[in-house]
TrEMBL record, chain A:
Keywords tagged on the record: Signal, Sugar transport, Transport
Keyword Transport among UniProt keywords: yes
Keyword Transport found: yes
Protein origin, superkingdom: Bacteria
Leader peptide range in chain numbering: 1-33
Protein name: Multiple sugar transport system substrate-binding protein
Pfam families named among the record's database cross-references: SBP_bac_1 (PF01547)
InterPro entries assigned: Bact_solute-bd_prot1, SBP
Automatic annotation (TrEMBL), chain B:
Cellular component terms (Gene Ontology): plasma membrane
Keywords: Cell membrane, Membrane, Sugar transport, Transmembrane, Transmembrane helix, Transport
Major site of localization recorded for this protein: membrane
Transmembrane segments: 27-48, 92-113, 125-146, 152-172, 203-224, 259-280
CDD domains (UniProt xref): TM_PBP2
Organism of derivation: Paenibacillus rhizosphaerae
PROSITE patterns assigned to the protein according to its UniProt record, in alphabetical order: ABC_TM1 (PS50928)
Protein's membrane topology: Multi-pass membrane protein
InterPro entries hit by this protein: MetI-like, MetI-like_sf
Name assigned to this protein: Multiple sugar transport system permease protein
Compartments (UniProt record): Cell membrane
Lineage start: Bacteria, Bacillati, Bacillota, Bacilli, Bacillales
Length: 461, 294, 284
């Protein structure tokens, strides 16, 4: 009977195939008549009446998707351009972007919101060279209040690949309640105050630190999370990557993570935890604040050095905060890492000129000012909008934020994570290899040669 | 196995009723159940209690077990923060259609695989299993290219249509259940002149109530909680699904996520599944109902 | 037979075969997603076997599979047996056991992150009742993998309902007959119940293996493969190569190695099981 079935099987298979095909086409026609058209015109880049649609790809979170609220105004000013926002949660940002590109549905405008930075996109040849468009358009950074040094961050070999839109800096937040309780004077916001050094910070931190068996009573003086791990030696004046990295698109010809200077820098940093005992271990921080959380927010840290995004939630903190300068740590040129997010046009864009119009719109002074409110406190790159940003945070003196921002720009260096190729691998490697140091199982001297070796392998890929 | 099992409503009870009260094994089992259930439910208790805390209380350290002040307004806030209603509906539509599609197609295919174990069939069977063994990140891109050629991007189709062609997991699952059905039943059916299709419908399906209910639950939960597929294929705000909305609450690198709202969303997201399970769970209790076969 | 499997077969040809074959093709290429793939023969496969992280991911995944799959099966079967008795509040217990499996992925990882918190988490808090000072779980390279295993046990409820559905199919007449023959509870289980549900057991074993070879979300969301690579699972490694390193070719090669290994495992288990798994309609 099995054989019998097989003979008729093929005919049956054919019939069902046709039946199902019919059902399928009926199904797709019926269910999604509306859906298909909306999907259609974005991909075709349709030319109905001269309108084009550009896609802005971003993270699916309130502080990024607010651009949707700017679209009506933009479209009113540019009736021939429609803007569509495509979004993904942070965790899926990279995979969706690459899938879109591979599937021939490349977005037009995006930024490095995923795990890789600008250099990654540049070296993978994903970015459109904007130099000619800028020239043709007559775009001048100065008209948009964008300082030249910020424009230069996203130039490689004199060609421009990105227009800055937001600028985060490194700053120090401090818990005023904790300072008051310990009767320690507040740290200064002025970068020119010569008394504000790393060693003085450690002294203050000792007065603020309470270590107790009762976890609810334990508190630490300082949490020094200055930039990503590989970036930190720079704070003390050690430069682990060769100079050419910053001009050739992020491919270091040499790295020096096993040099005595770098090792000394890391020892000083980990000394905060193990020698001075004024900083928490990673384990403690994560226990108190949860995954990717910040123990400062839980009120367990006196001073926290981190990116200015921590300001954004400040209004909800259950204690009073102040803003201060990053102390001097031995590097006369650099005290702050900058995190300048650029808007970039992808190579797959079919309408780069229209995309550039959208970018220009987003960096104009009044839009940048509006964006501060809409995003809940994104720092504008346009200096004309900066004053509005300084005033945005209740309970924090605008003058302090201004001092800190101006000092940070003066003594700033763009964060390595934007500038070095294959960075997400480098960062993964640092996090994993340094873990034994952070937990006190290995010394800096033991680990750094391995890191240096692995780093070379990653860069050579 | 030569005798026809006299299956009936009472078939599911290994321990007969009369011994219940004096049964030491029963008492031990009961205690074991109480303990494990307690452990299982504790995290969920925390989930619910967090959903009723204020934003400020979330930042408190150490965390409180019960909310200091009960913020029922959180349950209103979620509808203001996300287009929660729309997302809920979208997820429901996709979920229900997925269940319908999966049940129909998987039950058919599973019957085919269970009843005929000829030479070709095991090849097809392994081929079917192999589709589960390739991890999703590896086929994401080719699949996206395929669906974009069909012009299905930003529609529900990539999330629903594949279910109508059977999912390997559920086919395999049902095939295992169908395999336990006695051949004698089908021999009897054949003598009565039933076509294979009628035997599928009138013998195999009614006997597989618990298994079908299980498949329905699994298919629904899978579709209901799926995050990656909607993220890849949907972009219009009015088409997004619940998990995408929930992920958007935590996806900023720069903000303290609104944990309380996330927990509210999680609690609300569980409702349809709990309902479905409560309904299906009744099926388990009823056991197999053999109608008209005896 | 073809009539019955035709919906699946068509779906397979349309939706699965093309992605399967493209990834096989990519595995022989250097493909960065942006530029067209370039054929490089077996270079991806050759590279894999000399790569430290590849071997690390194999070890982590195997360890996870060998420990967690059997325990999960035992737990699920145990729960199912307990709940297949006539016991007060049976419906409540079933629902409660199954409840955890209803929690969505995002919420689940957040919850467990909190539970495993070394200082204030539920887990170590309960251990402290017994005077045990718990480890740092997810933050300690020696315990992170075990923490993820424990978390996987929480969802044993979904395996439980499969076993329950299977147990429903065990005819009461058989059990009664065995009882009349004077068989004890354990004997009945071993000689009647177990053979009757063996197809379900086999299903869960195979699925458990396939699933745990592909563990990804937990590593991705909760530990990012760390600390110190202790949760660097195979598919996490595959994902990083594809989407963080832009090496779709290499990651396709990883995928195919996994496919072949899991196929072999499955075929082996099925072959061995032929002797033990009891099919009622056994026409083999």
């Amino acid at each position: 009977m099995n054989r019998n079935r097989k003979r008729s099987g093929f005919a049956l298979l054919l019939t069902t195939l046709m039946l199902v095909a019919a059902a399928l086409s009926g199904c797709s026609g019926g269910k999604s008549a509306g859906d298909v058209t909306s999907g259609g015109d974005s991909s075709g880049g349709g030319d109905k009446g001269g309108t084009v649609t550009i896609t802005h790809y971003t993270i699916d979170s309130e502080d990024r998707t607010f651009v949707e609220k700017l679209i009506p105004d933009f479209e009113a000013k540019h009736p021939n351009i429609k803007v569509k926002v495509e979004k993904a949660p942070y965790e899926q940002f990279d995979s969706k972007l690459q899938t879109l590109i591979a599937g021939g549905k490349s977005p037009d405008v995006t930024s490095h919101y995923g795990s890789g930075g600008f250099a990654e996109y540049y070296n993978k040849d994903m970015l459109l060279d904007l130099t000619d468009i800028i020239q043709e358009d007559g775009f001048k950074a100065a008209d948009y209040g964008i300082p030249d040094n910020l424009m230069n961050i996203y130039k490689v070999k004199e060609r421009t690949y990105g227009i800055p839109v937001n600028m985060y800096v490194t700053l120090m937040l401090y818990n005023k309640d904790m300072f008051d309780a310990a009767k320690v004077p507040y740290p200064p916001s002025d970068y020119e105050d010569k008394s504000w050094t790393f060693d003085n910070m450690v002294e203050d931190a000792k007065k603020l630190t309470v270590i107790s068996d009762d976890i609810a009573k334990t508190q630490y003086g300082v949490d020094f999370t200055w930039a990503e791990r590989d970036n930190r030696p720079l704070y003390f004046g050690a430069e682990p990557y060769s100079e050419d990295t910053w001009t050739n698109g992020g491919v270091p010809s040499a790295t020096h993570f096993d040099s005595p200077e770098v090792i000394a820098a890391y020892n000083k940093l980990f000394g905060l935890i193990f020698k001075e005992k004024v900083s928490p271990t990673t384990e403690w921080s994560q226990s108190v604040a949860g995954q990717n959380g910040d123990p400062f927010v839980a009120g367990k840290i006196g001073m926290s050095v981190s990116g200015s995004w921590s300001l954004a939630g400040a209004n909800d903190f259950p204690f009073k905060i102040g803003v201060a300068a990053v102390p001097w740590g031995g590097n006369d040129k650099v005290r702050s890492t900058l995190y300048v997010d650029p808007l970039m046009i992808l190579k797959g864009s079919k309408h780069p000129k229209e995309a550039f119009e959208w970018i220009k719109y987003l960096v104009t002074a009044d839009v940048q000012e509006k964006s501060i409110e809409l995003s809940g406190g994104n720092p504008p790159v346009n200096t004309q909008a900066a004053e509005a940003y300084y005033k945005h945070f209740e309970g924090v003196d605008p003058q302090d934020i201004k001092n800190v921002y101006e000092g940070a720009v003066k003594y700033g260096f763009e964060s390595y994570n934007h500038l070095i190729t294959n960075y997400s691998q480098i960062n993964d490697m640092f996090i994993n290899e340094m873990q034994p140091i952070e937990s006190g199982h290995k010394t800096v001297e033991e680990v750094m040669p391995t890191i240096q070796k692995k780093l070379q392998e990653i860069i050579k890929r | 196995m030569s005798t026809l099992p006299a299956a009936g409503p009472q078939a599911n009870n290994a321990v007969p009723k009369r011994r219940r009260s004096a049964d030491p094994v029963g008492i031990v089992s009961f205690i074991a159940l109480v303990v494990t259930t307690f452990l299982m439910l504790l995290p969920l208790f925390f989930m619910v209690s967090t959903s009723l805390k204020s934003k400020k209380e979330m930042l408190k350290f150490p965390p409180t077990f019960l909310p200091e002040s009960w913020q029922w307004s959180n349950y209103k806030e979620i509808f203001e923060t996300l287009s929660f209603g729309t997302m809920y509906m979208n997820s429901l539509i996709i979920g229900i259609l997925t269940v319908v599609g999966t049940l129909l197609s998987s039950a058919l295919a599973a019957y085919g695989f269970a009843r005929y174990r000829g030479k070709g069939s095991s090849t097809w069977f392994l081929l079917m299993l192999s589709t589960m063994m390739l991890p999703y990140p590896a086929i994401m891109i080719p699949q996206f290219i395929l669906f974009s050629k069909l012009n299905w991007i930003d529609t529900f189709l990539p999330l629903i249509v594949p279910a109508f062609f059977g999912s390997a997991y559920n086919i395999f699952l049902l095939r295992q259940f169908f395999s336990t059905l006695p051949d004698e039943l089908f021999d009897a059916g054949r003598i009565d002149g039933c076509s294979e299709f009628r035997m599928w419908r009138q013998i195999a399906l009614p006997l597989s109530g618990p298994a079908l209910a299980t498949v329905a639950i699994f298919a629904f939960i899978y579709s209901w909680n799926d995050l990656l597929t909607p993220v890849l294929y949907l972009s219009s705000t009015e088409k997004l699904t619940l998990p995408v909305g929930m992920a958007s609450l935590t996806s900023s690198r720069f903000r303290i996520p609104p944990w309380h709202l996330l927990m509210v969303a999680s609690v609300l997201a569980m409702l349809p599944i709990v309902t479905l399970f409560a309904v299906a769970q009744k099926r388990f209790v009823e056991g197999i109902v053999l109608t008209g076969i005896k | 037979m073809y009539l019955f499997i035709s919906p699946w077969l068509i779906g397979f040809l349309v939706f699965a075969l093309y992605p399967l074959l493209s990834s096989l093709y990519y595995s022989f290429t250097d493909y960065d997603i942006i530029h067209p793939p370039q054929f490089i023969g077996l270079a991806n496969y050759a590279e894999m076997f000399g790569n430290d992280l590849f071997w690390k991911s194999v070890t982590v995944t195997l360890r996870y599979t060998l420990i967690s799959v059997p325990i999960q099966l035992l737990l699920a079967l145990g729960f199912a047996l307990l709940l297949n008795q006539r016991i007060p509040l049976r419906g409540f217990f079933r629902t409660a056991m199954y409840f955890p499996s209803m929690v969505s992925g995002v919420a689940m990882s957040l919850l467990w992150y909190w539970i495993f918190n070394p200082q204030i988490g539920l887990f170590n808090y309960m251990l402290s009742w017994f005077g045990i000072r718990g480890p740092a779980w997810l933050m300690n390279p020696d315990t992170a993998l075990y923490a993820l295993m424990i978390m996987s046990f929480w969802t044993a409820g979904s395996g439980m309902i499969l076993f329950l559905a299977g147990l429903q199919g065990v005819p009461a007449s058989l059990v009664e007959a065995a009882k009349l023959d004077g068989a004890g509870r354990f004997k009945i289980f071993l000689h009647v119940t177990l053979p009757m549900i063996s197809p379900v057991l086999l299903f869960q074993l195979i699925m458990g293996m396939i699933d745990s070879f592909q563990v990804f979300t937990q590593a991705f969301v909760m530990t990012q493969g760390g600390p110190n690579y202790s949760t660097w699972f195979y598919v996490y490694n595959l994902y990083t190569s594809a989407f963080k390193e832009y090496r779709a070719g290499y990651s396709s090669a990883l995928a195919w190695v996994l496919l072949v290994v899991v196929m072999l495992f499955t075929a082996l288990v099925m072959k061995l099981s032929n002797r033990y798994v009891h099919y009622e309609g056994g026409k083999r």
